[in-house]
């Protein structure tokens, strides 16, 4: 809530003890809220989730798919070392074929296949966890956002 107050205990030797009243700014409040939501694996209905920089989760609408939703937690373990080597050209080609077979349009331009739940945050290479995004305008906002979450 706005105006949340925290007390920081001062070093009694240096300051003579006591506490200092500090109000959290909006970015700190949003970050604290995002951390709690990530622990719970969800977000409140209609509430934006922000990363440590106070940036809201990107809202990108993919034709034939819809909005790329924030995946549910937990956001562990880091599967990058185990699963990234398996994300081969063959898998990407299979994903493209699967995507089109679902009746969806493959985007024009430089396409980057995005892990909705990143490998580094507990995601996997399942086709349901992938979405084709145009680089850089659609893909880069997600990459940048996840670097600072939570």
UniProtKB/TrEMBL annotation:
<dbReference type="GO" id="GO:0004519">
    <property type="term" value="F:endonuclease activity"/>
</dbReference>
<dbReference type="GO" id="GO:0008270">
    <property type="term" value="F:zinc ion binding"/>
</dbReference>
<dbReference type="InterPro" id="IPR002711">
    <property type="entry name" value="HNH"/>
</dbReference>
<dbReference type="Pfam" id="PF01844">
    <property type="entry name" value="HNH"/>
</dbReference>
<dbReference type="GO" id="GO:0003676">
    <property type="term" value="F:nucleic acid binding"/>
</dbReference>
<keyword id="KW-0378">Hydrolase</keyword>
<protein>
    <submittedName>
        <fullName>HNH endonuclease</fullName>
    </submittedName>
</protein>
<dbReference type="InterPro" id="IPR003615">
    <property type="entry name" value="HNH_nuc"/>
</dbReference>
<keyword id="KW-0540">Nuclease</keyword>
<feature type="domain" description="HNH">
    <location>
        <begin position="111"/>
        <end position="133"/>
    </location>
</feature>
<keyword id="KW-0255">Endonuclease</keyword>
<feature type="region of interest" description="Disordered">
    <location>
        <begin position="1"/>
        <end position="24"/>
    </location>
</feature>
């Amino acid at each position: 809530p706005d105006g949340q107050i925290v007390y920081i205990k001062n070093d009694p030797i240096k300051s003579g003890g006591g506490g200092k009243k500090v109000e959290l700014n909006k970015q700190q409040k949003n970050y604290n809220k995002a951390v709690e939501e990530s622990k719970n694996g969800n977000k409140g209905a209609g509430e934006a989730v922000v990363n440590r920089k106070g940036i809201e989760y990107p809202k990108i609408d993919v034709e034939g798919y819809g909005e790329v939703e924030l995946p549910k937690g937990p956001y562990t373990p880091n599967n990058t070392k185990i699963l990234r080597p398996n994300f081969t050209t063959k898998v990407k080609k299979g994903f493209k074929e699967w995507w089109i077979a679902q009746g969806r349009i493959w985007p024009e331009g430089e396409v980057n296949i995005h892990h909705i739940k990143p490998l580094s945050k507990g995601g996997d290479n399942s086709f349901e966890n992938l979405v084709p995004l145009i680089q850089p305008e659609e893909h880069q906002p997600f990459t940048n956002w996840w670097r600072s979450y939570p």
